[in-house]
Amino acid sequence: MNLFEKLKKSAADAGRKAQTAVEINRLRTQITDKRDEINVKLLEMGEAVYEAYRVRDLTIAERPIDEISKAIQDIEQEIEQIEYRIHQFKNERQCSCGAVAPLDAKFCPECGSRFGEISILLDEEPEDLLDTCPSCKQEIEENAKFCMNCGYRLMREQQQQQQPAVQTYE
Predict the structure, then answer these.
(1) Domain extent listing, the chain
(2) CA 128 to CA 139: how far, in whole Å?
(3) Torsion sign over Cα 73, 75, 81, 87
């Protein structure tokens, strides 16, 4: 590959990364707007409760509370979908425990749960890789409690080997 081709490829890569950053920021703005919508709904709910309290009949607030709560749940689902799209752009996946791992991880490095089917793409390498798993010899992150490849429970302090935390069937 000659210098011109390398420069052209680098410029194209930089353009894609810039576009991705712009899209992520646009999605984050959408999340902020959705959270503002939730705050408005919560204010409406509070007003309905106060009006019911003022007339000493809280039962009249039940219907508005139910309707507003459903609307808030819908908005929260929209936020989850937007957050998922952000994870897609960042090429990562999030475990139900809240930990974030690279796409190619088969197990969560925090809780050891097995990830489901891969549906997003890996773009960047995990940082702070300092060790290898005693079971499968794959590199592991410094603070991981479980191997992301085989689920092996890591006991760094005691340097003891244990059975994998999750059985794998391949």
Answers:
(1) 3-90, 102-170
(2) 10
(3) negative
Mean pLDDT by 10 residues, the chain (170 residues): 81 84 94 98 97 96 96 96 86 84 86 68 37 74 80 59 40
Cβ(146)–Cβ(154) under 8 Å? yes
Question: Please, how many CA atoms are within 13 Å of residue 157, restricted to the half-sphere of its CB?
Answer: 2
Tell me the C-alpha distance between 34 and 36, whole Å. 5
- Does the pTM of the predicted model rise above 0.85? no
Parallel/antiparallel/unpaired status of strands 129-132 and 139-141: antiparallel
> E strands within the chain?
92-94, 100-102, 129-132, 139-141
- Report residue 12 as tokens: 């194209």
